[in-house]
User: Fold this.
Amino acid sequence: MLRRVNEVLAIGYLTLRGAVEATCYVISAIALLLLVPLSNVMSAGPGTASPAGVRLGILLIDSDATSAVLSVVFCLGGAMFYTLLYRSRIVPRWIAVWGLAAIPLYLGAFLLAMYAVIGYTSSTLNLMVLPLAVQEMVLGIWMIARGFRPAAATTTSEQSRDTLVGVQ
Assistant:
């Protein structure tokens, strides 16, 4: 549906939020699952670590760094999505503008946390991500309660252009 508004943005959104973000979540989940075998290897005592245990340790991912990467991917995809919503007018524009305005706060919160200016569990980070979190809930409730608006009527300039080209 959004591909009709802007195909590049729609495919970019689908790629970022569908493929890249999902891949990041899968890698994070695998890293958390690897903690169990790694803890077994490490608890065997000093000098008993095998090369396999060392390789498992190298594969583990810092969850804070993963959160920062996921926030960047989420914000890029969100910016594409809210731009598409704004242009398509399938939801009220104030919802799309709210999302576009909240994305820099969300991204800034995780970038500040990544550079240890604020903590990942600090109330400052929570307050900075709150506008986008509330906006996402409002958007979800709006879509459930009201659905999409019908596509905006074509303007007279678009109709005259289509008539000149011969499109009916």
User: Anything to note?
Assistant: The chain is about 75% helix and 0% strand. The chain has a mean pLDDT of 79. Residues 7-33 form the longest helix (27 residues). The chain has one domain: 2-155.
